[in-house]
Design a protein that fits this description.
1 helix, Jelly Rolls, single chain, six-stranded antiparallel sheet, 3% helix, mainly beta
């Protein structure tokens, strides 16, 4: 009886190394399967409300918004593509954001149980001088803080990570923003 031995070669891909696996876009407009990039109506923005998604080359989309005036502006990304959903990101290392910004801003991680109000955990999103860059943002508690002007969160950071409803981009200065990618380690958003 002959014995056949099969040897498999396994290539280490980004997903095997811990990065989020490659995936297709949704049938409707999305950036990395995130379909809900929204101007909230808080602060003077263009567009003022509604979707930020605009077509780019090769049937892809970008989320573009302009902040006007020296006031707080708010842009929302629902992580599971609907408001009532939440995501447990407690095992995620963080996210890769591909963007351009003419000024500094912040991103807040807002949980379902404490969605409203400015007193949220946040981390700085540095200006890129208008160039498109990709940066990693850690979900380590030490990488997140709060702003006295917006208030101190009344909940621990692990609640924000465990009940993540959305990422909310906020800024107090005029800014030209263009989001081209948002990949969260260990999480693939569902298409709706």
């Amino acid at each position: 009886m002959a014995l056949t031995v099969l040897i498999a070669c396994v290539a280490v891909t980004p997903s095997a190394a811990g990065a989020t696996p490659a995936r297709g876009e949704c049938a409707t407009p999305s950036v990395d399967r995130l379909q809900q990039w929204l101007a909230s109506g808080e602060g003077t923005t263009v567009p003022a409300t509604g979707s930020l998604l605009v077509p780019t080359r090769h049937h892809q989309y970008a989320a573009k918004v302009t902040f006007l005036n020296a006031e707080w502006h708010v842009v929302v990304v629902w992580l599971a593509n609907e408001f009532e959903a939440q995501v447990d990101l407690s095992h995620s290392r963080g996210f890769l954001l591909t963007y351009s910004a003419t000024e500094d801003l912040y991103v807040q991680l807002r949980p379902a149980s404490h969605w409203s109000g400015g007193a949220q955990w946040l981390t700085p999103v540095p200006s890129t001088g208008g160039r498109t860059v990709t940066r990693f943002f850690s979900l380590r508690p030490g990488a997140w803080t709060s702003l006295p002007e917006l208030g101190t969160p009344a909940f621990p950071f692990d609640v924000a990570v465990g009940e993540a409803r959305g990422l909310v981009f906020v800024g107090k200065t005029a800014n030209e923003l263009d989001f081209r990618g948002l990949r969260i380690n260990g999480y693939v958003p569902p298409c709706l």
